Each structure stands twice: as C-alpha cells, then as structure tokens.
Amino acid sequence: MAEALPFRVFGLSARRPAAGILLAMDVDGPVLEQLSREECLRLMGSVPVGRIVYTRQALPAVELVNFVLDGGDIIIKTDGGSKLAAATRGAVVAFEADSVDVAGQAGWSVTVVGHAAAVTGAEETSRLERLPLTAWAPGNRDHFIRVAPAIINGRRLGGRAG
Questions:
Q1: What is the gyration radius of the CA atoms in the chain, in angstroms?
Q2: Distance separating alpha carbons of residues 108 and 94, to the nearest angstrom
Q3: What is the CATH topology of the domain spanning 32-157?
Q4: Which DSSP state fits 135?
Q5: Low-confidence residues of the chain, pLDDT below 70?
Q6: How far apart are CA 51 and CA 92, in angstroms?
Q7: DSSP 8-state secondary structure symbol assigned to residue 134
Q8: Closest CA to 118 of 152, 139, 153, 93
C-alpha cells in the first residue's frame, strides 16, 4: 500500500486517509456553523430586508423585499396587482435573508422554502397592518403575502481565527 501523501485544499491541510477514515483537518481560517431553526428565525427577525425567489413565466425571479416575521411566518407587503402578488398565490417559494461583514469576513445566511399565500381575511389583514413592516419601495402596498416555512437552512461564517 502506498504511503499517505499530504495535500492542501482551501486552507485545510491533512494526509490522505486510508479508506473509511475521516480527514483530520487543521482549520486556520473562518469557522462555518450550521444554525438551528430557532437561531435562523432569530437572525431573520433582526433584518428588515430579504429576497423572495418565485417563478415568473416559467423562469426563476428574485425580488428584494421588506419583511417581518409573524409567529415564524414571513410577511411581505406588496401591491395587490404586482407580478409578485400574482405569482406567489399558493406557490412554493424560496426566501433568503442575510447579514455580511465584508471586512471581518463574517456573516450569516438563512434560506427558507415554503408555501406562499395571499392574506385575504379583513381581520387578519387589519392585524398585519399593525406589524412593524414598512415598504421602502414607492406605491400602494396594500396586499400581504404569508410564507409558511417548511424547510429552514442557515449558516454562519465566523471571522478569521487568531
């Protein structure tokens, strides 16, 4: 059997292991952490802007939107006649929110996949109107979209060690 040879991949060093043996790595850079569902929701609640990914004319479309969390659901306020409002009624969508510190090479990103639904009830609409959700875009934003998360995935990248 040949001797294990050293190799380097993106700041990680190790020796090639025998079959079935995990790599032992010396990490001298940022640490990547998988986040719990609770931490994902907490981080998402700390930022006012995210991106919704939906299908428009059979192609993926991405829009930057203001949002707020309501009981773990994502609430977006838009124009009732918009392409976003029409395309997300009953659709499966993705949603992403993040925060990045470029200088510190750190940040986090949370991705959600879930069903989007228009909020139609007068009582529920009235309740959502009282949430701290302000659209930055101009125009009449009188339509609410609720995204109920089915899958939540989050990662945090810490700054460089030492």
A1: 21
A2: 17
A3: Pnp Oxidase; Chain A (2.30.110)
A4: -
A5: 1-30, 159-162
A6: 14
A7: -
A8: 93
**Of 74, 79, 52, 55, residue with least CA distance to 63:** 52
Residue 133 · residue 66 · CB < 8 Å: yes
Give the tens place of pLDDT for each residue, 131-144: 999 888 888 888 99
- Say what the pTM is: 0.77
> Cα–Cα distance between 124 and 128 in angstroms, integer?
6
Two structure tokens written together for 34: 């998988």
pLDDT for position 29: 62
Q: What integer pLDDT is reported at residue 28 of this predicted model?
A: 60
What pLDDT is recorded for position 159? 61
Could you tell me which of 157, 67, 156 has the C-alpha nearest to residue 114? Answer: 67
Compute the distance between CA of residue 4 and CA of residue 151 in angstroms, rounded to an integer. 40
C-alpha pair distances (Å), 89 with each of 86, 107, 131: 6, 32, 21
Answer yes or no: are the C-beta atoms of 154 and 43 closer than 8 Å.
Answer: yes
Q: Do 154 and 108 contact (CB within 8 A), yes or no?
A: yes
Alpha-carbon gap, residue 62 to 18, rounded angstroms: 45
Q: Is residue 14 classed exposed, middle or buried when 0-12, 13-18 and 19+ CB atoms within 10 A define those classes? A: middle
Could you give the 3-state DSSP secondary structure of residue 44? helix
